[in-house]
Each structure stands twice: as C-alpha cells, then as structure tokens.
Amino acid sequence: MSDAVNTSGKRKSAIARAVVRAGNGKVTINKVPLGIYSPELARLKIEEPLGLVPEKVSKVDIAVLVNGGGVMGQAAAARTAIARGLVDYYKDEELEAVFRTYDRTLIINDDRRKLPKNPLGHGARAKKQKSYR
Fold first, then answer.
1. HSE-up of 97 (CA within 13 Å, CB side)?
2. What angle do CA 68, 54, 85 make, to 5 degrees?
3. Residues 15-39: what's their mean pLDDT?
C-alpha cells in the first residue's frame, strides 16, 4: 500500500478528483463530510462503493473534489473516483472484480457525450421543418 493515491472519475461534464490516503474512514465531498452531504439520493449513490468493502474503507481517508455538471452527475463521478482510488490504493485485482460485477460504471467513466450540431437544423437531431404548400 502506498501513502496517497490520486484518481479521477467523469460523468457527462462533471469531473471528480479523489485522494485516498491512510486514515480512519473519513470521507469528504468538496470538504463536506459524507454523512451530512445532501441531497440524500446523491449521498446514497456515492456510498455504493463504500458499502461493498467496508473493512477496507475503514482504514483510509478519502477526500473528493467535484466540479461541473449537475448534482447526480457529480455523484456518479465521485463514486467512480472513490472506487478507482480504493483499487489503486490497495492494488487489488479482486477488489476491482467486486466493483465490476456490482456495476461496471464504478470503474469505467461514462464516455457518452453530446452529438455535434448539424447544419440543417438548430441541434444535433432537430431539422428545419418543411411544408410543401
């Protein structure tokens, strides 16, 4: 185990950076303790990787800084950063397998992006309407 590990996670335009270091189980998101992070749905999403391996989480402190995107996009980016950080910190293939079988997006960033705008309309798929009258 190394002294500290930096990882990142992405979802849409939200980017999360996590630092995992030896400690006693403190988790903060943008310097706010996870226990009082709101909204509750976002907190529950962030807690998913922590609930899968509580015995490993209790030995580390995790600090996550998230910016960009919306509330749930930030939550998804943070959980990816946390899961990757734990895998990198413990250098454990088995831990990665546990996360992958639970949900692939815990380890892999969401690579979906907006389509480029097309010249015939005012968006990626919208087209100017035509009327033959």
1. 3
2. 40
3. 93
The proportion of the chain whose per-residue pLDDT surpasses 90, expressed as a percent, equals: 72
Domains of the chain, first to last: 4-106 (3.30.230.10)
Q: What is the mean pLDDT of residues 109-123?
A: 87
| Structure confidence at residue 18 (pLDDT) | 96
Q: Rounded distance, CA 100 to CA 87, Å?
A: 11
Q: Show Cβ contacts of residue 6 under 8 Å, excluding neighbours closer than 6 positions.
A: 17, 18, 19, 85
Cα–Cα distance, 65 to 5 (Å, whole number)? 14
Mean pLDDT confidence for 42-68: 93
- pTM of the entire structure? 0.85
For the chain, helix (H) and strand (E) counts, in that order, are 4, 5
Residues in Cβ contact with 51 at an 8 Å cutoff, skipping those fewer than 6 apart: none
Instruction: Give ∠ CA 13-17-22 in degrees, rounded to 5.
Output: 160
